[in-house]
Amino acid sequence: MLFNSSRARFMVRLASSLLAGLYSLGAVAQAPSQTLPPEVAALLARAKVPQGAMAALVVDAAPALNGKSAPLLSYRANTAMNPASVMKLVTTYAGLELLGPSFTWNTPVYVDGTIAGGVLQGNLVIQGKGDPKLVLERLWLLLRRVQGLGIKTITGDILLDRSAFAASAQNPADFDDQPLRPYNAAPDALLINFKSVVMTFVPNLASGNASVSFEPPLAGVQAQTSVPLSAGQSGSATLAACGDYRAQLQADFSDPLRMAFNGSYPVACGEKVWAVAYADPTSYAERAVAGMWQEMGGKLGGRVREGRAAPNQTPAFELVSPPLAEVIRDINKYSNNVMAQQLFLTLSLQRSGTASNEASREEVSSWWRERFGEQDLPVLDNGSGLSRLARITPQGLARLLQTAYVSGTMPELMASLPIAGVDGTLKRSKSQLSQGWAHLKTGTLRDATALAGYVHTPSGRRLVVVAIVNHPNAPAARPALEALVDWAVKQGGR
Q1: Are strands 119-127 and 158-161 parallel, antiparallel or unpaired?
Q2: Residue 208, by phi and psi: left (phi above 0), alpha (psi -120 to 50) or beta?
Q3: Rounded to two decimals, what is the model's pTM?
Q4: What is residue 299's three-state secondary structure?
Q5: Is 180:277 a contact under the CB 8 Å cutoff?
Q6: Beta bridge partners of 120
Q7: Nearest by Cα to 106 from 137, 142, 82
């Protein structure tokens, strides 16, 4: 259900207005620091990034609750910057408000024919409606439910209806010429397993080979199931000898009909899992469904192909996704680009029945204007932050986080953010003071690095911290951003 309660809309607008007013009044009463902390400036210099390439804001999460309305730090906070994956905060909070935390995606399955003696005389239709988490085990469950209808053999075809999303010309190589990286997978109304193949390597000293398993099974694709082991010893003491095992494998995935290796696998690596995007993403869903159906003992007289569900037909059943509150944890904690894009497109799909990036940009922009006005209006691209065009100001992100903090969906949004030194993209954070105290969304591109979220202090004060660097050396500036978080922990206790 779309967010349409007039009282709820009024309360959110009121909270936004109060926060904006307090921010402005505080700025008059006590000017925030306009210079970066010395430790942050020193780390920027070490990364060879000028201070002018950074923008940051540190402010109370709920000024009205503690009477401290002036920002602790405001440095170029009105500058529009590329936030990289931090833009997912806009998409996920808009999703929570417009769809609700309990929203689910349904994937209807239709039986077009008659069933008798385990045989469907006709076609099976699977209609995608944007489920971001139709992963391998859930595809198996869908097909198992088909078999539960008494269908073991299908005389016709399995039709895949992907018409809910407008056709896209997006190519996985468009962004950074890395089409086999799973983060470049394009959205799809019937997105199966992120269009990726997951390979598991298990060394066997007795045979001198490492076995290789591939999931899901892709119909018509030959996969090399073993690779020679390279010299070395097993055991945890020699794990450092593993090195770049992916390069040593000399994988050849250029032919969509064949996945092979020309090298060897280091025995010191132990068991490893490697996920790659399939070389021909347009045929992935058809191959995955056909391969899984065959592996489950099902028979198919025709083939798996594109098709449409008949209008007004009643589905035999619908596979229901996990709720949005759970989905956004995957999106934010692990910065899953294609899941974010699926959610972004769903916003326009739920509003008008058809989905496109253009329509979703209009939907989110309209939501932003209603919540925050014209100020700090973000430049949206695909909702994931995997973009060279996306822009937002640190002040805009801070206003969003402050509004979310006093909203009913605050627990869901905060729980979706990586915790410094604990999980997600911040599991390996080297920040000392903020470990376990900061819930932050991170983002990194080759020329942008950013973080934004909530920082808790030992005194009980809670802050919003936003920091963005746009510069060719931006990834090297990550320690400077973490130092700002530590600085916020210390300052927030005063």
Answers
A1: parallel
A2: left
A3: 0.90
A4: strand
A5: yes
A6: 115, 154
A7: 142
Residue type, 357: N
250 belongs to a structural domain = no
C-alpha span between 227 and 201 (Å, rounded): 9
> For 345-381, what is each residue's pLDDT tens digit?
999 999 988 899 999 999 999 999 999 999 999 999 9
How far is Cα 366 from Cα 378, in angstroms, rounded to an integer? 11
Name the token pair of 299: 């028979």
The partner residues of 214 in beta bridges, in order of sequence, read 199
- CB of 430 closer than 8 Å to CB of 114: no
Domain with residue 27: its CATH number is 3.40.710.10
Residue of 479, 424, 490 whose CA lies nearest to 455:
490
Residue 362, in any domain of the structure: yes
Domain of residue 81 covers: 6-102+323-492
Distance CA 262, CA 259 (A): 10
Q: Span 190-198, mean pLDDT?
A: 97
Cα 360 from chain centroid? 17
Q: Are 265 and 201 in contact (CB under 8 A)?
A: yes
Tell me whether the omega of the peptide bond preceding residue 63 falls within 30 degrees of 0, making it cis: no
Q: How confident is the model at residue 173 (pLDDT cuts 50, 70, 90)?
A: low
Residue with tokens 């076609």: 123
Q: Which residues contact 260 (CB under 8 A, 6 or more apart)?
A: 222, 224, 251, 252
pLDDT tens digits, 344-354: 999 999 998 88
3-state secondary structure of 32: coil
Over the stretch 424-450, which tens digit does the pLDDT of each residue have? 899 988 777 778 889 999 999 999 999
Question: Does residue 61 form part of some domain?
Answer: yes
For the chain, the residue count is 494
Report the pLDDT value the prediction gives residue 29, as an integer from 0 to 100.
36
Least Cα distance to 125 among 355, 306, 321, 312 occurs for 306
Q: Would residue 364 count as lying in a domain?
A: yes
User: Which amino acid is residue 174, in one-letter code?
Assistant: D
pLDDT tier, 178 (very low <50, low <70, confident <90, very high otherwise)? confident
- The three-state (H, E, C) secondary structure of 80-140, written as one string: CECCHHHHHHHHHHHHHHHHCCCCCCEEEEEEEEEEECCEEEEEEEEECCCCCCECHHHHH
